[in-house]
Every structure is written in C-alpha cells, then in structure tokens.
C-alpha cells in the first residue's frame, strides 16, 4: 500500500462525513450553556478537600507534639513528628497539583499540555509512596519508657516483629510502587481498582512523550 | 443568542468534521463518542474568547479537540458523572449504515489501535496538514514529525497488508 492510497481512503471517509454529518445548532447551543466541569476542574474540589483535611491533621499532630514536648515521651514525640513530616510532604505535593491544575492550558500545543496533565495525575503515585513511609511509626507512637522497662519477652517479640514488618513493608512499598511494576500481581491487587486507571494511563502517556522527546535529541 | 455565540456555532458547523474525526478516532463506543463530542464543544466554547483571528481556526480547533480527547483518561462510566446530564447530540452521522467500505473502516480501526500521540499525528497528516502545521499543533519539530510519521505510516501499511 502506498501513501497515496492511505490518503485516498481518508478522503473517501472525509467525503462520507461531508455528505452525512449533521450539525444540530440548538443542541450545540445547549452544550455551551452547560457549566464547564472538565476532568481537571472536577479534580480541584477533591484536591482542595484533601489539602484542607491534611492541614487540619498536621496542625493537630503538631499541636500535640509541641504541647507534649516538655512532658511527652520520646516514642510518641518522634513517631508523631515523623507522621506529621510525611503528611506535610504529601500536602505539599497536593498543593503543587492544585497549582498545576490552574496553569494547564488547553490552547497550548498538545505535547506540553499532555505532559503537564500526565505529570499532575502521576504525582498521585508519589504521594502514595511517601505516605507509606509513615507505616512503622503507627506501631511505636503509643510506647513509653515505663512500659518498655517492665515489658516481658513476649511483648518484645510481638512489638519488634510488628514494627520490623511494618518498616520493611513501608520501605519495600516506597521503592516498588512504580509504573514499571504495573503488571505484577501485588500491584494489580493494590492499585487495580477503577480509581487508579487514570494514573496508569497518564504514566503511559509520559512514556509516549518521553519517546517523542528522545527522538529530537 | 449573542453575536459571539452565533459566530462560535458557525465556526463549529463549518469545522464539524474535525470534531467528529477526533472523537471517532479516540472513542469506539457510541456513547463515549457522544460524551467526547460534547466535551470538545464545551471546551472550545470556553476557550473561544482566547482564539486569535490571526490563527488558523481549524488548527486551533484541532489543538483543543486533541488535547481534550487525549486527556480523556477516564472510563465511559465515569464520564456521565463528570458531565451534567447529556444534551442531545450536536454532531452525528445521518445514516451510518448506508455504505460499507471495508478498507475505509479498516483504516479507522487501525488508527484507533495507535498510541494516542501517534493517532493525533496521523490524523493531522491524513487531513492534509503540512509538517510545520502539525508541529505547531502538537508542539514538535518538523524533523520529529517527519521521522515519527514515516514510522507510523509504515506501521499502518504493514497492518493493512497483513
């Protein structure tokens, strides 16, 4: 098949459209009256809510840490402080996403617009990875020196096993929650739900864009 | 109806083929296509005040239509949640069953199988846009357009003869 044949086929399709395509002016006018609620703007309220909830949670943790600092035990202060830090980073990424939402320009060239949108969507994967790092600290915040001092061997076996397991899982998830592992069974189990599909597709888009960018080098 | 809206609707009417071709290339399912058509028209209307008359209207429309179509990552079932209740179809084929052309239909299928950006590239090429125009819509250099297009055409031809 030659180029010209491809073009002729397309022209024949174009011809068919010219003959059969109908434009309903009233319906098109009705569409323009609809409230604009694109994919991006639909994301904004969810992100805003998450940022606000995150800020309240961080404030609560920080107030606890500050007020309990003189009297609180080190286990609680370190655990709560680290959980707060991880959540601050996550909220920071959500704020970055909100900024990106406001600067995405649908009028701009396709590659640059798609790169921004895909980057915005895939940064959610980063938030998930970072939030995993707080897991082990949820197993230590309630400990105290007095409790540990009087603990029996069974307590130590259980406590250390749980904390080590959570620490290992959090580091492993932080390293392995990435697009390259999308076909692994555990990944599909964790992120196989409907909500994660756009993130995986956005990542595919970034791969396509990278492919085009490498072509120019 | 305002003069601006009248003008906008005339622009859409004279370029309805672009909107339909983009929607049809990115959505196989009828309901998805209708939703995408609706969203493209809506986004064009939203962006219309920023349209500069010194810019070619069809190129501007292609850019927005492709941006909307490619970024439609969501599944069909989610679309209806994002958009408000569907308006009646604004652009549609009067009689889609009147004529069957195997090769033409095959070309549609093969284009839909391409990656999103490749699909945009071949659509613009088949619609007769020059390399600088394609580069302008997509944000690519002319040489990049030429190289990629050559590969996509080879890919299409190979599949056609397979």
List keywords for this structure.
heterodimer, A: 217 residues, mainly alpha, elongated, B: 162 residues, Rna Polymerase Sigma Factor, Chain: A, Arc Repressor Mutant, subunit A, 2 domains, 2% strand
Gist?
Chain A has helices at 3-20, 25-32, 39-68, 74-103, 110-132, 145-149, 153-176, 185-191, 197-216; one strand at residues 21-23.
CATH architecture of the largest domain in chain B: Orthogonal Bundle
Mean pLDDT of chain A: 88
Number of strands of chain A: 1
User: Largest sheet of chain A, if any?
Assistant: none
Q: Beta-strand percentage of chain A? A: under 5%
- For this structure, what is the CATH class of the largest domain in chain B? Mainly Alpha
Q: Which band does the percent of strand residues of chain B land in?
A: under 5%
* Structural shape of chain A: elongated
- Structural domain tally of chain A: 1
Helix content of chain A: over 70%
What class would the helix/strand composition of chain A place it in? mainly alpha
Summarize the helix and strand pattern of chain B as letters.
HHHHHEHHHH
CATH topology of the largest domain in chain B: Rna Polymerase Sigma Factor, Chain: A
**Distance between the terminal alpha carbons of chain B, to the nearest Å?**
53 Å
Radius of gyration of chain B: 16 Å
Shape of chain B: globular
Q: Multimeric state of these chains? A: heterodimer
Keywords (chain A): Membrane, Transmembrane, Transmembrane helix
Transmembrane segments (chain A): 48-69, 75-96, 117-148, 154-175
Protein name (chain B): RNA polymerase sigma-70 factor (ECF subfamily)
InterPro entries (chain B): RNA_pol_sigma-70-like, RNA_pol_sigma-70_dom, RNA_pol_sigma70_r2, RNA_pol_sigma70_r4_t2, RNA_pol_sigma_r2, RNA_pol_sigma_r3/r4-like, WH-like_DNA-bd_sf
């Amino acid at each position: 098949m030659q180029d010209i044949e491809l073009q002729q086929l397309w022209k024949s399709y174009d011809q068919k459209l010219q003959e059969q395509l109908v434009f309903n002016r009233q319906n098109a006018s009705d569409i323009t009256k609809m409230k604009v609620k694109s994919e991006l703007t639909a994301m904004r309220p969810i992100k805003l809510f998450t940022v606000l909830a995150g800020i309240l949670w961080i404030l609560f943790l920080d107030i606890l840490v500050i007020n309990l600092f003189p009297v609180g035990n080190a286990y609680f202060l370190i655990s709560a402080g680290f959980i707060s830090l991880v959540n601050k980073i996550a909220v920071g990424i959500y704020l970055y996403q909100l900024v990106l939402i406001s600067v995405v320009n649908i009028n701009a060239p396709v590659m640059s617009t798609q790169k921004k949108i895909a980057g915005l969507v895939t940064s959610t994967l980063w938030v998930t990875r970072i939030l995993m790092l707080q897991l082990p600290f949820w197993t230590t915040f309630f400990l105290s020196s007095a409790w540990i001092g009087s603990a029996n061997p069974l307590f130590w076996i259980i406590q250390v096993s749980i904390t080590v397991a959570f620490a290992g899982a959090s580091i492993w998830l932080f390293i392995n929650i990435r697009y390259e592992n999308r076909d692994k069974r555990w990944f599909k189990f964790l992120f196989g739900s409907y909500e994660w599909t756009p993130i995986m597709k956005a990542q595919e888009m970034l791969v396509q864009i990278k492919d085009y960018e490498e072509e120019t080098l | 109806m305002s003069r601006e809206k009248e003008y906008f609707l005339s622009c859409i009417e004279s370029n309805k083929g672009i909107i339909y071709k983009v929607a049809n290339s990115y959505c196989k399912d009828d309901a998805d296509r209708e939703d995408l058509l609706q969203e493209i028209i809506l986004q064009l209307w939203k962006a219309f005040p920023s349209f500069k008359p010194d810019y070619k209207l069809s190129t501007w429309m292609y850019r927005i239509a492709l941006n909307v179509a490619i970024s439609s990552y969501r599944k069909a079932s989610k679309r209806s949640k994002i958009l408000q209740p569907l308006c009646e179809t604004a652009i549609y084929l009067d009689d889609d069953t009147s004529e069957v052309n195997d090769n033409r239909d095959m070309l549609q299928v093969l284009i839909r199988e391409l990656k999103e950006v490749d699909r945009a590239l071949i659509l613009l090429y088949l619609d007769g846009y020059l390399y600088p125009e394609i580069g302008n819509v997509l944000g690519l250099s002319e040489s990049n357009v030429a190289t990629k297009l050559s590969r996509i055409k080879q890919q299409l031809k190979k599949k056609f003869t397979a």
